[in-house]
Amino acid sequence: MSEPIRNKKPDITTAPTPQNTPANNAPISSHAQQPGIASIKEEDLDRATAASIFAQNPKLVSMIQGKLGSLVGRSSGYVESLPAPVRRRVAGLQGVQQEHSKLEAKFQEEVLELEKKYFAKFTPLYEKRAKIVNGTTEPSEEEVKAGEQDGEEASEDGESGKPGSTDKDESAESFKGIPEFWLSAMKNQVSLAELITQNDEQALKHLTDIRMEYLEQPGFRLIFEFADNEFFSNRTIIKTYYYQEESGYGGDFIYDHATGDKIAWKSDKDLTVKIESKKQRNKNTKQTRVVRKTVPTESFFNFFDPPKAPVGEDEDVAEDVEERLELDYQLGEDIKEKLIPRAIDWFTGKALQFEEVDEELEEGDFEDEDDEEDDDVSEDRDDEDESDEEVSRPSSSP
Amino acid sequence: MSEPIRNKKPDITTAPTPQNTPANNAPISSHAQQPGIASIKEEDLDRATAASIFAQNPKLVSMIQGKLGSLVGRSSGYVESLPAPVRRRVAGLQGVQQEHSKLEAKFQEEVLELEKKYFAKFTPLYEKRAKIVNGTTEPSEEEVKAGEQDGEEASEDGESGKPGSTDKDESAESFKGIPEFWLSAMKNQVSLAELITQNDEQALKHLTDIRMEYLEQPGFRLIFEFADNEFFSNRTIIKTYYYQEESGYGGDFIYDHATGDKIAWKSDKDLTVKIESKKQRNKNTKQTRVVRKTVPTESFFNFFDPPKAPVGEDEDVAEDVEERLELDYQLGEDIKEKLIPRAIDWFTGKALQFEEVDEELEEGDFEDEDDEEDDDVSEDRDDEDESDEEVSRPSSSP
User: Fold this and answer.
1) Does ipTM come in above 0.85?
2) Among A39, A79, A356, whose Cβ lies nearest the Cβ of B348?
3) Which of A229, B131, B176, B192 has the most C-beta neighbours closer than 10 Å?
4) What pLDDT does residue A151 have?
5) A338-386 tens-digit pLDDT
6) Chain B within 8 Å of A245 (Cβ-Cβ)?
7) What are the pLDDT digits (tens) for B235-248?
8) Which tens digits make up the pLDDT trace of A142-165?
9) In angstroms, how far is CA A298 from the centroid of its own chain?
10) What residues in B contact A21, CB-CB < 8 Å?
């Protein structure tokens, strides 16, 4: 039996070899010596989220490239220090690798075609699902029987009631479809559940379908369909993810940007803002007054107002936006690859079996942002802030 | 612009809805409310390692299933609490999902066929690479020219010498191929570099090729080819990864187990063991003596003696072995998907540009295991341990 692998750092007191004698101590070689095993487990677990039905997906390469381009990939001097005939062979291998890269790009294109072919096969099943969910059709006996067997296999304890039994003597007519199907499914998918406020639930329970479509160009759109509701007049709200036309390293598609539909909020129903009011006292008159202002607030519906890639030079801002871009992209992926393909398993919770459970939740990654910045108001008015309280959300109706 | 998403926990003081009234506080619903955004960034970055040329790969689902099966996926009671006609529709959707699963499995099979088709296209390029690396052929002028352009685009600083120039006036005949090509490439791939000891390098510099082959059954083998060397008589050492015959959730192939070739070490050249000696004093006679024993030690060549899946009930042991199984699987993946397809980019360091840089290296994940357990020896002999020192590795030759 082999010994557990240690996290060793090689020391550099041995005889010179091509490996330990770079021309300078450049980032490449020092990076190569960094301990990195710790990260593997994470990746393993991520790979294990067995939901990657459309697995050939665009990567955040461009983002990462931007981050790392200045750190690694520069010459260590090692290649340049090689004798000329060896350098010529290295260049030759780089030329051979270009042929490989062209093939890789073709491979990725063929995988995408395969995905589209299967997406066309999946679509009738999604349409049937939508009809059952919304009560316009009932499942066939065969489908129910197959599903019941599936459920019995899954539940090992005998407690759960047998689906389909009529122990509460309710008739099919009194319940239309599966109420709040999509909201329930979304709330079982952790990355989405995080975003859904209690107010959001009042709107999201009107979801009638979540669909996906490939674009003509590289990319896809997520289509959220809603029944008539008191929050907005849109019947569909669409989020579109665009990939770059040119494929990246390894032939992967590269995520470019996303856009979202504008939501036509009904009066005082915008879930993405809240009204804050604060008392102000005039320094001269000592009179107080209440100032109200509309400030952005957390809501799932911010998903349709995706962050824009940073343009400026401020590194802190750029980092923050990049994090949000990554999250935004990941949410789209989760919906496309997990929620839509297997919504019923998210509804019942079965899909959770196959999800990574991150035991080391790093809550520190997210800062508490309850301290709203109201400086602009007080500056404008030359008033003193006296108190700062949130009065109400505009849309706290049931 | 939307507000950064907070890591909120919903409170449960609102009106009852299907979402907030599970029949009991079962793991499903509590899991769904766990903060999970922190894990997304990791996954994003992993996805961004743009090296997944064979991206439809077996997952560690079986392992994860084993871990989580007892935690999640059990009924929360919510589905069972639904009215009978709704339960019937849920069962029907589960039946529809089974059709979807069958299609997903077919999709994965077709992706594997596509991978094999492209692997056949890549193979001549790999063979040409091996010939250039080992000096049996020289690259063509076109390949060198293409590679030089590639190199010029990559290096933004003008310092690096132009490959192919003969500023050192060396002739092609005096250097055979690219010395230590594979060792250098491996040492730039962090997960592999971690495993390579300085003694290992003396053996690994004799690598002439690393190849991959698909098995007849689901799985693949990694073939390490060596020139004649002083460490072992094998000319090839093979590591084989087997997948399960049956596909898992989402149609993914599931990793089953791995096997490795036995290495025919030459006398006193086994890099996977070291000799420890310790002085012992007999309690009665007070005489001391030196006991030598061979103990396993860290080495890349332990890769060919993969861990076995745990059979017993001891949870601590099982967890440790699972971690090592995950690492072992990940190493195979890294070699198959990153090192072999783009070895020249690992050699030059270009591939590092597209790697995740894990800024939060969790060294704590790995324990220092320098305290060898020698209890068995002292017990057997009823002797007292006096000192415990490592005398020498058997293979410290240059």
Assistant:
1) no
2) A79
3) B192
4) 63
5) 999 999 999 999 998 887 654 444 344 444 444 444 434 333 444 444 4
6) no
7) 999 999 999 888 78
8) 999 999 887 665 544 433 444 444
9) 16
10) none
Which two structure tokens, joined as six digits, stand for A4?
A: 């557990």
Residue numbers in B near A179 (CB within 8 A): 18, 86
pLDDT score at A174: 66
Q: How far, in Å, CA of A134 to CA of A128, rounded? A: 10
CATH of B83-145+178-266+299-355, picked from 3.40.50.880, 3.30.1490.100, 2.130.10.10, 3.30.1120.90, is 3.30.1120.90
Report the length, in residues, of chain B: 398
**pLDDT tens per residue across span A206-243:** 999 999 999 998 899 999 999 999 999 999 999 999 99
Token reading at B130: 């091996």
Question: Which pairing describes strands A207-214 and A219-226: parallel, antiparallel, or unpaired?
Answer: antiparallel
The residue written with tokens 């590194």 in the block is A315
Identify from A1, A262, A354, A361 which residue to disrupt to test chain B contact, counting B C-beta atoms within 10 A and taking the largest count.
A354
- Determine the residue of chain A that is closest to B139 in CA distance: A92
Residue A336 in this model has a pLDDT that exceeds 70: yes
**Number of other CB atoms surrounding residue A238 within 10 Å:** 16
Q: Which residues contact residue B59 at a Cβ distance below 8 angstroms, ignoring those fewer than 6 apart?
A: A47, A48, A49, A50, B248, B252, B253, B254, B255
Q: Does A328 touch chain B (CB under 8 A)?
A: no
Could you read off the pLDDT of B212-234 as tens digits, one per residue?
999 998 899 999 999 999 999 99
- pTM for the predicted model, two decimal places: 0.69
CB A71 within 8 A of CB A27: yes
Q: How far from chain centre, in Å, is Cα A85? A: 48
Indicate whether A99 pLDDT > 70: yes
Question: What is the DSSP secondary-structure string of B93-123?
Answer: HHHHHHHHHHHHHHHHHHHHHHHHHHHHHHH
What is the chain A residue with the closest CA to B138?
A89
With 60 as the cut, is the pLDDT of residue B321 above it? Answer: yes
CB contact under 8 Å between B48 and A63, yes or no, is yes
CATH topology of domain A54-70+85-147+178-267+299-352: Arylsulfatase, C-terminal domain (3.30.1120)
Domain positions in chain B are 83-145+178-266+299-355
Vertex B267: Cα angle to B262 and B270 (nearest 5): 50
Looking at residue B25, what is its pLDDT?
30
* CA distance from start to end of chain A: 62
On whether the CB atoms of residues A244 and A254 are closer than 8 A, the answer is: yes
Give the dihedral sign, CA B305/B311/B315/B319. Answer: positive
